[in-house]
Amino acid sequence: MATRRAALESARLPRKSASETVPSVVIGLNAVIVAVTDEVPRVLTVSRTDHALAGSATADALPFGPLRPEQHRTLERGLRSWARQQTGIRLGYVEQLYTFGDRFRDPRAGQGGPWMISVAYLALVREQQLAGRGEAHWRDWYDYFPWEDWRSGPPALISQAIAPALESWLTQASDTPDARARRERRDIAFGLHRTPWDTERTLERYELLYEAGLVSEATSDVGEPTPPEAENLGRPMALDHRRILATALGRLRGKIKYRPVVFELLPPTFTLSHLQRVVEALAGIRLHKQNFRRLVERGGLVEGTGQYDEETGGRPAELFAFRREVLRERAAPGVRLPGPQARV
Asked: Could you tell me if residue 339 is inside a domain?
């Protein structure tokens, strides 16, 4: 992705004299708001934003808006304000994700627009009714990254579409070392040729597809028509919001292994089956039922309530609650996950 972006920047960089002023910089705030409902990991998107940062983009966007120093005492308060206005949701758990500052991440910068630097945040909520002015929608995040869902085994999309397209991209390398480096990146990112699939490499996979020109954003950024194969490689997003979402997905998959963030997505009481389905939805893999329960219980993450769920469709299942004492007892109280053994 770095090579393609460097070429884009070189082509768009305005020729300025020494006397010209430095272009203005705008600080944006982006929210990746995640929920899990009925085994579907969902992300909140908006269609309208009521500010000039969105331009004329019509694709799905993450809730976002500019930092307004006269109104926002902190970056996080600004983010919460924009999310509330656009979606009607009052955010709870929020953590700063990453700062995105590539010069031409907003193509309008090439036509004299400001340099857009965005500070992105990850927020975890339970799905709720939407309001606000942003025409917000909950979307399945695997609509944007269909190659990331391994719960039914390796996605056919990888072997049937992605691997052949990346093989063609390899042949375009100018020399042998470059081709070798591309092949290694491809195999590591997508778990090819007996390389293990790493659930956390979501950003690497998206950026590799971007650099190879296989996703819609790669061609729209340079004003080229979308290639036919991009139609099957996920739903596009405005600007670089799919890159931000890929960053959030990788962060969340890694974080559930050493922090109890998954409980932010659950009601106060839950069955162990419900907990497992939420973890599987986030990680994109299936877990062995008994092994998962042993890890959770031995890790001191949950405690029984003595109450039972009578609506399980069979034998009533005990309801559990997050055991907060584990935060004092363990330095990394997360759900340790095994990697899938499947190869493509």
From this structure: no
Residues forming a β-bridge with 117: 27
Residue 321 to residues 80, 112, 215, 262, 318, Cα–Cα distance (Å): 28, 54, 42, 12, 10
Range(s) of the domain holding residue 214: 154-234
Q: Identify whether residues 76 and 32 lie together within a single domain.
A: yes
Q: Each residue of 321-330: pLDDT tens digit?
A: 999 999 999 8
User: Does residue 89 lie in a domain region?
Assistant: yes
Axis-axis angle for helices 241-255, 272-283 (nearest 10): 140
Q: How far apart are CA 236 and CA 216, in angstroms?
A: 6
Give the pLDDT confidence of 190-240 residue by residue, as tens digits: 999 989 999 999 999 999 999 999 999 888 777 777 777 778 899 999 889
Round to whole Å and give the CA distance between 103 and 83: 25
Do 34 and 117 lie in one domain? The reply is yes
One domain for residues 169 and 41: no
2-30: b or e for each residue (b if 16 or more CB lie within 10 Å)? eebbeebeeeeeeeeeeeeeeeeebbbbb
